[in-house]
Design brief:
heterodimer; A: 283 residues; alpha/beta; 5-stranded parallel β-sheet; two-stranded antiparallel sheet; B: 429 residues; two-stranded antiparallel ribbon; 40% helix
C-alpha cells in the first residue's frame, strides 16, 4: 500500500513540492494542512488524492456554525424525547439516537479513507483545539453509549484553510503544512493544457499573458486566480474569440474581452477601466 | 547535524518544537525524500514550518546551515554512470530542449564537459557554497534544465533557473508584512466580540428544556432563550482631510471592516483633533454637526472609543484655545480629550503614521500622553494590541471600579437614553 505515490493526475497538476507534502502525510499518517490563495485548487486536491490512490473520500465542509462535536457524533435528544412521549420502544436504546458525523464515518471505513476537512478557518476559533486528540490518536469516546470509537485505518486527512483565522499552535504541531504558491506561467500552461487539451497555442499564450498582466495591476482587491482563468478560457473558447483580440498592445488600450470572468468586484473593474482610460489618453 | 539545524531554526525565529523535529526524522527514515537536496528542503519545510509567514526565515536558516552540504549529493552524483545520467535527462527533457542540447555539441560532449567541470570544481572550491554553474556562467546547474543548465539527478522538478530554491526567498513578502485588507482588519476586530443574549426569546434552549422536562417528571416543558449576539459597542472617531489624505485607503478599510463587524457601531469625523463638535457626513460637515457634549451624553461609557488619526499638527492645535486651523475653539483640544477619555474609559488611538516617526512629532507625543500611552500603530499588530487594551476589564485610567463581567454589559446602557441609542427591537430577529 505504501508504494502508491501521489504525483498529480491527468486532471490535476501538482507541483513536486506539493506531491512531496502529500506523500509525506500519507506515509506518516499525519494530517496535511493546505493553505494558499483562493482558487488554487486546495479543495480539489483531496478529490484527486482520493481518485489517484483509489481511496474512499469523506468530505466535511466547515461553516461558521460548525462544532467539532458534529464531526464525531450528535445525540438527537429531541427525537428521543418525542419517542418517549409517544411510548416508542426504540427509546430504551440510546444508541438509536446517536447520529454519526463525518469523522466517525471515516474511522469506520473498510479501506484507508481520505478525509477532507474543508475551510477549517471558517469555524469558531476553538474548533481545531477540540479535534486535537481525535486527530492525534484517531479515536474518540462516545459518552452516551460509553463506547470508544477507533479508526480501523488512520485516514489521510487533508485540511484546507483560507487564513481567515490563525490556527492554534497545538493544532499546527500535529499537522504537516504546505502553502500552495500561485503557479508560475509554466505551471499555469500545464494546468490549462490539462483542462483544455485542444486549445490553440496562440490563444493560450495571449490569454496567459493578458491574465498575468492583469494580476500585476497594483491595488486589485481580489487578484484573479487559477479557477477564474479556467472559467475565462472556457468563455473565450465558447465565444470563439480570436487570439488577436487579446494581443498585448491592444489590451493596453482596451479591456480584455469578457473580463467579467476575471474581475469579481466593482472596485477592481473600475480600477482597471480607469487605467485603460489613462493609457489610452497618454497615447 | 540536524540537531544543530533544529536549534538554529529556533534561534532564527522559526517556532519549531521537538515533536515536529522527530516527525521530520521519522519521515527521513521512511524515505519520503531521498537523495535530493531539494526534496529534503521541501520535506523539512512541510514538517517544521506551519505558517507561510515563516517560510522566509526558514529559507534563510536553511541556506546558512546547508551551505556546502549539497556537495554530498553532488559527490554522489559525480560517481553516476553516464548512461544513467543520459537516461535521466532523456526523461526530463522535451523535444525542443533536446534540440537545444544538440546545438551545444550533443550529449557526449556536454556530459564530458560536465564531468570535467565537476572534477575541477571539487578541487578548486573545496569550501565553496555554490552548485556548479549557478547563475548561468556555465551550461550546468543543479536546478532545472534550461538552455544554460543541465539538471543532475533531482527528479522531474520544474524549476528552471539555476538558483537554489531556498536562495530565491520567494516568500519574503509574506513574512509578517501582511498586506492589510478589510478581511485582516475584520479578523483583528473580531477579537473584540462580546456575546450576550438579548432580544426576543425565540430559540429552543435544548439543555434548559431537557432539565426542565426531567424536573417536570418527563412531561415536555419547552424553554426558549434569546439569540446570542455580539454585544460590544464601538464608537469610531476618524480624522479626515489634510495630512490624513495619505492614509485614506487604510482608514477606508478599517472603517468598512468595523462597520460590518459590529452591530452597535457609530462613527464621527473630526479634523486634526476633536473639539466641541463632530460630524457624520463629511460633505455636510458644516451643516450637520453633533456637539461633543451630546455625544458624551448619548453613548454610554460601555462604548469602546477608537480614534483614528495621524495626530500630526502644530502642538498649539491641541493645547491652546483657538488653536484649531478651521475655526475658533473656545476650549483647548486637551480639555475635550480629557472629557472624552474620562467618560469613555475604554479608549485607544490608532495612528497610521509609522512608529519610527512618532518621537519626532511633538503633537503625537502630547496626544499619546493625553491617552495615557494608549496609542497604537494602524497595522495588524498594532490593532491587536489596541484590541487587547480595549478588552481589559479595568481600564488604565483610574475610574470607578466597575468590574462587570463582559457578558452582562449588554444591560449597562440605559435603554432609550438618547436619540441614537439602539432600540431593542423584539421583532427584529
Amino acid at each position: 500500500m505504501t508504494d502508491s505515490r501521489f504525483a498529480g493526475s491527468d486532471r490535476y497538476i501538482a507541483t513536486p513540492e506539493l506531491a512531496l507534502a502529500v506523500n509525506a502525510a500519507v506515509t506518516l499518517a499525519r494530517p496535511l494542512l493546505i493553505k494558499g490563495e483562493p482558487g488554487t485548487g486546495k479543495t480539489q486536491l483531496a478529490e484527486e488524492v482520493a481518485a489517484v490512490l483509489k481511496r474512499p473520500l469523506y468530505e466535511w465542509h466547515i461553516k461558521s456554525t460548525s462544532k467539532a462535536q458534529q464531526g464525531l457524533y450528535e445525540y438527537d435528544a429531541v427525537s428521543r424525547l418525542r419517542d418517549s412521549q409517544l411510548g416508542d420502544a426504540r427509546v430504551h436504546d440510546i444508541g438509536n439516537y446517536i447520529v454519526r458525523g463525518k469523522l466517525w464515518e471515516a474511522f469506520e471505513s473498510q479501506a484507508q479513507p481520505v478525509l477532507l476537512i474543508d475551510e477549517i478557518d471558517k469555524a469558531d476559533i476553538e474548533f481545531p483545539n477540540d479535534l486535537l486528540r481525535e486527530l492525534d490518536r484517531m479515536e474518540f469516546y462516545v459518552y452516551e453509549t460509553r463506547e470508544l470509537v477507533k479508526a480501523r485505518h488512520r485516514p489521510i486527512i487533508l485540511i484546507t484553510s483560507n487564513n481567515e483565522k490563525e490556527l492554534p499552535d497545538a493544532f499546527l504541531r500535529r499537522c504537516f503544512f504546505h502553502y500552495i504558491r500561485f503557479p508560475d506561467e509554466e505551471t499555469m500552461r500545464r494546468i490549462v493544457d490539462v483542462h483544455f487539451p485542444g486549445l490553440k497555442r496562440e490563444l493560450l499564450a495571449e490569454a496567459l499573458a493578458s491574465f498575468f498582466r492583469l494580476r500585476e495591476v497594483p491595488g486589485l482587491k481580489k487578484k484573479p486566480s487559477t479557477s477564474e482563468l479556467l472559467d475565462w478560457i472556457k468563455l473565450l473558447v465558447a465565444e470563439d474569440i480570436p487570439p488577436e483580440a487579446l494581443r498585448a498592445d491592444e489590451s493596453k488600450k482596451s479591456l480584455p474581452p469578457l473580463y467579467g470572468a476575471l474581475l469579481k468586484n466593482e472596485q477592481d473593474m473600475h480600477l482597471v477601466e480607469q487605467l485603460v482610460f489613462l493609457s489610452r489618453r497618454a497615447r | 547535524m540536524l540537531v544543530r539545524f533544529f536549534l538554529e531554526l529556533r534561534a532564527g525565529g522559526v517556532p519549531v518544537t521537538l515533536p515536529e523535529f522527530l516527525v521530520l526524522l521519522a519521515a527521513l527514515e521512511s524515505k519520503v525524500a531521498w537523495l535530493s537536496a531539494e526534496d529534503f528542503y521541501y520535506l523539512a519545510r512541510t514538517c517544521l514550518v506551519k505558517d507561510e509567514r515563516h517560510y522566509d526565515r526558514f529559507d534563510r536558516v536553511f541556506a546558512e546551515h546547508f551551505k556546502g552540504a549539497e556537495k554530498l549529493f553532488q559527490a554522489f552524483v559525480a560517481t553516476l554512470p553516464a548512461e544513467w545520467l543520459k537516461a535521466m535527462a532523456e526523461r526530463i527533457l522535451s523535444e525542443e530542449e533536446k534540440q537545444k542540447v544538440q546545438s551545444l555539441g550533443g550529449w557526449e560532449k556536454l556530459l564530458e564537459a560536465l564531468r570535467q567541470r565537476l572534477a575541477e570544481q571539487k578541487s578548486r572550491h573545496e569550501g565553496g557554497s555554490k552548485w556548479i554553474g549557478t547563475g548561468g556562467t556555465s551550461p550546468f546547474g543543479a536546478q532545472g534544465y534550461n538552455p544554460e543548465g543541465v539538471r543532475i539527478g533531482q527528479g522531474a522538478s520544474r524549476h528552471r533557473r539555476a538558483v537554489k530554491v531556498w536562495d530565491r526567498r520567494e516568500f519574503r513578502n509574506l513574512d509578517d508584512s501582511l498586506e492589510l485588507g478589510t478581511r485582516n482588519f475584520k479578523m483583528g476586530l473580531r477579537r473584540l466580540r462580546r456575546f450576550a443574549r438579548e432580544g426576543a426569546a425565540d430559540q429552543l434552549d435544548l439543555d434548559g428544556t431537557i432539565s426542565a422536562t426531567a424536573r417536570n417528571a418527563g412531561w415536555l416543558d419547552l424553554k426558549l432563550v434569546a439569540e446570542r449576539r455580539n454585544a460590544v459597542k464601538v464608537l469610531l472617531l476618524v480624522d479626515i482631510g489634510g495630512s490624513m489624505d495619505d492614509h485614506v485607503r487604510i482608514c477606508d478599510e478599517l472603517f468598512s471592516a468595523a462597520k460590518s463587524e459590529f452591530r452597535h457601531f457609530e462613527h464621527f469625523y473630526f479634523h486634526n483633533f476633536p473639539y466641541e463638535s463632530l460630524w457624520k457626513d463629511n460633505r455636510r460637515r458644516h451643516a450637520e454637526r453633533l456637539a461633543t457634549h451630546q455625544l458624551i451624553r448619548t453613548y454610554g461609557p460601555d462604548y469602546r472609543l477608537i480614534f483614528v488619526g495621524d495626530a500630526t499638527m502644530s502642538p498649539y492645535e491641541i493645547t491652546m484655545p483657538g488653536g484649531s486651523v478651521e475655526h475658533w475653539n473656545e476650549e483647548a483640544g486637551t480639555v475635550w480629550m480629557q472629557r472624552l477619555t474620562a467618560h469613555f474609559r475604554h479608549a485607544v488611538w490608532l495612528n497610521p503614521e509609522p512608529v519610527q516617526r512618532w518621537d519626532y512629532t511633538l503633537s503625537i507625543g502630547i496626544t499619546r500622553e493625553l491617552l495615557g500611552g494608549r496609542m497604537f500603530p494602524l497595522t495588524l499588530e498594532g490593532l491587536d494590541r489596541a484590541i487587547t487594551e480595549l478588552r481589559r476589564r479595568s481600564p488604565a485610567t483610574p475610574a470607578s471600579a466597575e468590574a462587570a463581567p463582559g457578558d452582562a454589559e449588554a444591560g449597562d446602557l440605559p435603554r432609550g437614553g438618547g436619540p441614537f441609542s439602539p432600540s431593542p427591537s423584539p421583532g427584529a430577529a
